[in-house]
Design goal:
Layout lengths: L7 E2 L1 H22 L6 E6 L6 E4 L5 E3 L1 H6 L7 E6 L2 H11 L5 E5 L2 H9 L9 E7 L8 H10 L2 E7 L1 H7 L10 H11 L4 H5 E6 L2 E6 L2 H14 L10 E4 L5 E8 L3 H14 L6
Parallel strand pairs: 1-3, 2-5, 2-7, 5-6, 7-8
Antiparallel strand pairs: 3-4, 8-12, 9-10, 11-12
Helix pairs in contact: 1-10
Amino acid sequence: MKRVKYDIIGYWSEIKLDIIRAYASEYSKILQSQSSIRKHIYIDAFAGAGQHISRKTGEFVPGSPRNALLIEPPFSEFHLIDLDGTRAAELRRLIGGRKGALVHEGDANEILLKKVLPRCRYEDFHRGLCLLDPYALNVDWKVIETAGKMRSVEIFCNFMIMDANMNVLWRNPDRVAADQLARMDKVWADRSWREAAYQKEPGLFGDMEEKADNEAIAEAFRQRLKNVARFAYVPRPIPMRNDHGAIVYYLFFASPNKTGAKIVEAIFKKYRTRGIK
């Protein structure tokens, strides 16, 4: 059998795990206490192998699936998804024979739309917390919009700004390869991202396109979560950085519930400036 390749993670990735664990614990307590809710479901769309290796210590660090499985009171169901067969096998080993815990091997976007999100229907009195934590620009906007319009699903979603800047958001957008444009279109649902990413400025020979900064692009995506996906509450995201301080992605939270947004705003506030020199 192929050996499991664990991700080596840095300081900010460990912060992300702390944020998600803290909120998932509060979420499970609140949903468990509501007698009208029949199920509350945990979904990890890019679950990995269930644990990581700390770059700082070299020791294993529990990943989001392992953290979620330990939360009390427990979620009603767990759906862990990964494209890599070796990692999916490791996730199956992790859950053992736990009732209500399922591992899905394959494309997360397809599995979410066809198999998992339909289990979180509002009218069934089911609710879901979904983690969309990819390595690159891999989340299909259809997934996000479907979750938003269901009114029963809350999401943590990474917008991979470093990937976008390196491969799509160039100073001369006309030189970007067609396949990279298609990736960005899929994440944003259409080409309107260009209006957010480039602003026309007057120049000596007519208007010129100037690339917007990261914050402007993140805010445009936040507005899209609210106005297109129809999430009622989308707090300002927290920028997640690499060891050199550069922003790798923005961690967004989007929810139909005011209470969830308030809890996440407090958690984000606690961590927002950690590690910034």
